[in-house]
Amino acid sequence: KQEVTQIPAALSVPEGENLVLNCSFTDSAIYNLQWFRQDPGKGLTSLLLIQSSQREQTSGRLNASLDKSSGRSTLYIAASQPGDSATYLCAALSGAGSYQLTFGKGTKLSVIP
Amino acid sequence: NAGVTQTPKFQVLKTGQSMTLQCAQDMNHEYMSWYRQDPGMGLRLIHYSVGAGITDQGEVPNGYNVSRSTTEDFPLRLLSAAPSQTSVYFCASSYWAGSQETQYFGPGTRLLVL
Question: Among A3, A8, B51, B65, whose Cα sits 20 to 30 Å from the Cα of A18?
Fold first, then answer.
């Protein structure tokens, strides 16, 4: 059974700092690794998707990397802004034939002005 | 496109009552799924469907039923609500359950079972 862990559970940084969020998964037989953002009381918004054959994906100030062999992914946020404050969730798509997303519990990010 | 819509946004039930959480998407997506999100537990898959007429169980299916009669709709039924089903429920969809497709999530339904 796939298990996804995110560390830290919460993170507070001053505006302008670069930061890294960590995600680890136990089963390396994944189809992809996805990062989502969730604002309080809202649904999930997809940020980046890294296919199993890829090493990283970039979108604006966000960069996500994937190391299947070690079961790790990181989300790098450059020059953080107060608007980046949210909970960030990573999810691994796996399960032969069933394509199930397994989520981590998230990292709650607060960017202090 | 409205994307993924869910109704109601909030619902209070008494133990033993039944209800249906509605989910609809207008993107012609084949794959649809239901998750529940609980504090400290993250999101967990309840049921999913890879197309009209095809459904399967996820990680926590007990107490929930689903059906998929059309591509657009994927309702989640609580047959006899229990306090343990108090949660936020999210519906999601994607073109297909493949490695290149991300899932689009609805805004969620907050359910309180007394």
Answer: A3
